[in-house]
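From the pipeline queue, job 12 of 40. The input is one protein chain; the requested action is below.

Action: predict structure.
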Amino acid sequence: MGLPVLFGWGKKGKQVGYIGIDKCPNCKHYVHLYLYEYASVFRLYFIPILKWNKKLYLVCSKCDAAWELNGEFKEELIEESLTSPPMETTTLLWNKVGKVIDENLDILMKKYPEDFISPMVETCIANLCDEISDIVSIRKMSLKYLEMILDEDKPR
């Protein structure tokens, strides 16, 4: 009597990267965005043997909307996923930047009514550089947080 051969095929998706916090074009919230790879898979005895038709998608953590990535934008997001801090670090930084901005926004808007964004980013860096040594991430997160605050299209 022979051993039965178990095989199957189907689609398989897995998270392959983390992009960071940005605005979801679908739900309009500022959320964590992830890279997912979906592929057709052939399995033998539950072991993936062959993958084909691989596609990369950007996925929203809130509404689960997904967008297939192609071309130059795909390469840019792959690079960003390689350089982005992990989700836990990003969330911590987002919350710290938010606290600094909430405490100083009104003061800086009155002091610099024409352009308060640059002084606000510098304030975030000055307040957080002792805790977080990555000044580039503080600057990037500060700009993204200010974008969220000033966004007229976000859900209320």
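Job complete. The CA atoms of residues 17 and 82 lie 7 Å apart.
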